Amino acid sequence: MKLSFGGHWHRYLWLFAAVIAIYVLISYLILPATWSRIEHEPGLSKRTMVTSTAQGIPGGAINVGLIGTREDVVSAFHAAGWYPADPVTLRTSLEIIGSVLFDRSYKQAPVSPLYFDGRREDLAFEKPEGISADRRQHVRLWLVLQSGADGSPVWLGSASFDSGVTLSRDTGQVTHKIAPNIDEERDRLITGLDLARMVLDIYQIRGIGPTPGSEAELHQRRASQRAH
Question: Model confidence over 37-47: pLDDT tens digits?
Answer without folding.
Answer: 445 666 676 67
